[in-house]
Predict the structure of Peptidase M12A domain-containing protein.
Amino acid sequence: MGLVSTDTGHRWPGRRIPYVIDDTDFPEGSAGRQEIQRGIDLWNAQAPLPLVPRAGEGDYVRLREAAANLHSAVGRQGGEQGVYCDIGASRQQRIPGQRSQASPALAATGNSIHLVHIGNGSHDLWHSMFDGTKWSTNVRIPGQQSKAAPALATFTGGVHMVHLGNSSNDLWHSVFGGSSWSTNVKIPGQQSKAPPALAAHGGRLHMVHLGDTSNDLWHSVFDGTKWSTNVKIPGQQSKGTPALVSDGTRLHLVHLGNTSSALWHSTLGGAAWTPNVRIPGQASKAPPALAFDGTAVHLVHLGETSNDLWHSTFDGTAWTPNVRLAEEKSKAAPSLATFGGRVHVVHLGDTENDLWHSLIDQGSRNLAAAIVHEVCHAAGIMHEQSREDRDLFVTVHDDQIQAGQGHNFEKRTDSADDSGLYDYDSVMHYGPFFFAKTAMTPVLSPGPATGGFLGAFANIGRAQNFSAGDIETLHAYYPAWTPNTPIDGQESRGTPALAEFGGLLHRVHIGRSSNDLWHSVFDGAAWTPNVRIPGQKSKVPGALAAFGGGLHLVHLGDSSNDLWHSVSDGASWSANVKIPGQKSKATPALAEYGGLLHLVHLGDSSNDLWHSTFDGAAWTPNVRIEAQQSRGTPALAVHGGLLHMVHLGDSSNDLWHSTFDGAGWTPNVRIPHQQSHGVPALAAFQGRLHLLHLGNSSNQIWHSIFDGTWRPNVPVEGQSSSVGVGIAPFGSQLVMVHVGDGSTGLWHSSYTR
Ligand SMILES: [Zn+2]
């Protein structure tokens, strides 16, 4: 992910989101509440701002149910706000004019779903097709009747049906070739007391059915010409019709117990079926249904005692806890088919013989990830495909979007900023068919970019958890700064200079009202009382950097623009020496890079930027950095093998970025949407570049991270300063010291990540 609200005031204070779970929507002990808890646990396992039970906070989220309508406001709204999780996911619609007295059967081809069902009051078999938009009027299949539900599967381009006799347990086989059904043919020597299950797998059509009078399960295959003799599956019995689906590698069989409503799972990989294993915690009062969507095996079944429909998926290793399909009920087994990348469900009504059609959506597919998605919204994050740069990465087919849903695919350029690289794997990315008019043509297809993104297009809408990019974005949006604490007894009227040297963090700052320079040291716990550096004065703050076994200080004269250089061994300072031929009207910047100490400073009277290096013995003559000016001190830091510089505009508060590779400086580029009225500070820490600056007109301190691109800046909660801040990495912390907002007291804060 990487699209964050520009309204940073809607972030949550204290890096936490207080929550309550709605007790009516998700009663204590209910399956729904367990799902909500799974979502909270998934969030808290990685998010830098945890969900914490509300303890009187005025602003909090309430986790609520809303069928087929996951949503949440973006960012903290003030007071209570709902996070609607959609445990259910019903979009069921009645199939007009069709009724059945038994379970329907489904099979999908490339361009339609086929539905066959028996009549409402007869054993006639009726056939209808769904083209992605609507169901055709059902047509009676001539000359065929079945006393119970039929079974369907697609195999070698045709739709194959096996059904019971009109009054016998015989099994009959017929094929729909595209325009009509073949005359049904009795499968020799096979009978079943309940409808069979069919699935294509490994180039053959497989059938599993019950015995003529027993609950034994029998397996037979059709090679395109004839059915093999059926073989009993050892050790497996079912009191009702089994369900069968192939994942391309294995054939999955799920069936009821011999006498119980427990659900059992077995697979056929090579020649033999695995022993069946109980699916933990799941039971059904009617036969189950299966489908495979290219990622997971989907199971839908009735409740153990209710007509509710439950959904679970198998990822190749384990079944997810089942989740109720909200508002959907069926008095008999449902049927499933995968079509257009989505799992379709057709089932009877709760009490009547009407046929209902629905899609299993993202919410019920992985509720925990869906909760994470919605809480991301509450945290201030928007959909990935709404980024300003999205046209490079996805193509949006506006003509395929459901009426009234176009707003879901608009770019958010006013209210949000892109953060980091475009991330197909983001939990905030829609799938190809979200809000699609039909299940046949996607709304999203790949864009033209061949690089410069994270993840893979094939993963969109399938996230089971945060992506790595999601976590980076949350950390950048909620940076981990500690509240600042005063450094007792130390004051300065300017930006302090910080540098790690000899295992300690050193700070040099100008006096509160004098030009004296003061030195203090932090050992990780406390700052030492500051000590005046003897014999050195500067009319503005100095710059500090470790280089070549010494701590180097460069500062202006007491009243002149001359630049002076002094070195410390950590305890005492050498007498300062004037750097020949160099003058600056403002504090210079120092950094070690490529075995040299680099100095960048303003002109004596101009805003030009000049660059000079020190090799341990002498300073090179300074050279003007072409076409770059700054109205204040620039900031330097080394990151990714380059020396980075950020500086103000020549006369504006804009922030500009340039890098030096040892030979030359790149043209400077403006950092989007960031301004500062004070000088910026830059430091490399834990593989990222950190920029701290003031507001455009306020003294609020802002933080931005560069990890290849600049992430949107965010205010450092509760911290402001009259002038630019000092920052430096120190061990496992990034330390910031700044003066107060309107006062000369010094404050200390740290960032760890
Ligand atoms: Zn969303």
Notes: The radius of gyration is 35 Å. The chain has four helices and 59 strands. Residues 492-752 form a domain with the Neuraminidase fold (CATH 2.120.10.10).
